[in-house]
């Protein structure tokens, strides 16, 4: 019996260090989750090269990357209640999500595209919430703002509530304070951000409408532009037809399917028929060639097939 008891005590003592390490690691783990999304949203896990489909409730951890396709968006909630929304064609990395007895440390790295962020007010002085881009870094302590990174890596920060401190990545000593309804930009190669200036009213309204909890998309209007060049074809000649689908007066963000039908005796060069189904590019535009064996003014009818995700 004595030998058996001694063995059990030793086993427990050996297990304690492992249990303690696991407990400390659990305390330091932070989690974000996908609250909602529409369209094509992908996630790449840290230390993995594969992209997987996003899903509502999917948990995100430090090092994970989220990207959106055309006409897509995703809303992410962090464990502190802060909300991030990625617009279409955006990529963001959960660069740092840590916590310790000293406080929480968050850094979201926006690589390309537009994001909106509602950051909960930080509870402790040692808590840190930063948003970085290829050219800038913004320090946040409870703010609603947006970040947009262009292909040139130029970065724009618009503040809608509260204030943020923005600096160039390699020169953080020259920060600019941006307050409500103001913006700053950090251009590639610049030593410091531009002075904070007022956001134009029309741009401010659009930003709030498209941002977190905004009403954009609830009453969209659609239109179709058809251009035939030249409008009259000579016998044996050809013309180019450009079809552009629009939403709220702007080029549609995504691909659609056009069913085109010609009047008269004209035919499509692609199939020799008077009817053609064609898929647009990611901006809702398609171009086709037509021909005719007589001189006549061209008429064309177009039906559009597309999906709207609620």
3D architecture notes:
There is one protein chain. This protein is mainly beta. The protein folds into three domains: 1-30; 32-210, Jelly Rolls (Sandwich); 222-305, Uncharacterised protein PF12988, DUF3872 (Immunoglobulin-like, Sandwich), CATH 2.60.40. It has two helices and 27 strands. It has helices at 2-28, 201-210; strands at residues 32-38, 41-44, 52-53, 59-60, 65-68, 73-78, 83-86, 91-100, 103-118, 128-132, 136-140, 144-149, 155-161, 163-168, 171-179, 182-186, 197-198, 222-229, 232-233, 238-247, 250-251, 257-262, 267-268, 275-279, 285-291, 296-297, 300-305. The protein has a 17-stranded mixed sheet that branches. Strands 18, 20, 21, 23 and 25 form a five-stranded antiparallel sheet that branches. Strand 10 and strand 11 form a beta hairpin. The protein is elongated and about 80 Å long. It starts with a helix and ends in a 5-residue tail after the last strand. Residues 1-16 and 18-26 have low confidence and may be disordered.
Summarize the structure.
The chain is mainly beta and 310 residues long. The chain contains two helices and 27 strands. The protein is elongated.
């Amino acid at each position: 019996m004595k030998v058996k008891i001694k063995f059990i005590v030793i086993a427990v003592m050996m297990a304690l260090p492992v249990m303690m390490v696991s407990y400390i690691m659990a305390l330091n783990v932070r989690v974000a989750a996908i609250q909602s999304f529409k369209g094509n949203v992908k996630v790449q896990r840290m230390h993995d090269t594969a992209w997987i489909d996003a899903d509502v409730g999917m948990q995100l951890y430090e090092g994970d990357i989220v990207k959106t396709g055309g006409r897509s968006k995703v809303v992410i909630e962090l464990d502190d209640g802060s909300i991030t929304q990625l617009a279409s064609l955006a990529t963001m990395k959960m660069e740092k999500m840590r916590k310790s007895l000293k406080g929480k440390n968050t850094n979201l790295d926006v690589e390309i595209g537009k994001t909106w962020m509602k950051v909960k007010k930080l509870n402790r002085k040692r808590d840190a919430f930063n948003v970085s881009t290829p050219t800038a870094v913004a320090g946040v302590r409870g703010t609603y703002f947006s970040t947009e990174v262009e292909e040139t890596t130029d970065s724009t920060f618009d503040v809608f509530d509260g204030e943020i401190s923005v600096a160039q990545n390699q020169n953080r000593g020259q920060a600019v304070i941006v307050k409500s309804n103001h913006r700053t930009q950090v251009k590639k190669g610049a030593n410091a951000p531009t002075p904070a200036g007022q956001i134009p009213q029309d741009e401010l309204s659009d930003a709030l409408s498209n941002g977190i909890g905004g009403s954009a998309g609830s009453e969209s209007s659609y239109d179709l532009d058809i251009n035939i060049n030249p409008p009259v074809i000579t016998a044996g000649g050809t013309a180019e037809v450009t079809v552009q689908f629009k939403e709220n007066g702007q080029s549609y963000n995504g691909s659609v399917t056009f069913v085109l039908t010609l009047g008269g005796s004209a035919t499509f060069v692609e199939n020799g028929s008077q009817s053609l189904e064609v898929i647009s590019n990611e901006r809702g535009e398609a171009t086709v060639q037509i021909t005719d064996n007589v001189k006549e003014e061209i008429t064309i009818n177009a039906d559009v097939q597309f999906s709207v995700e609620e």
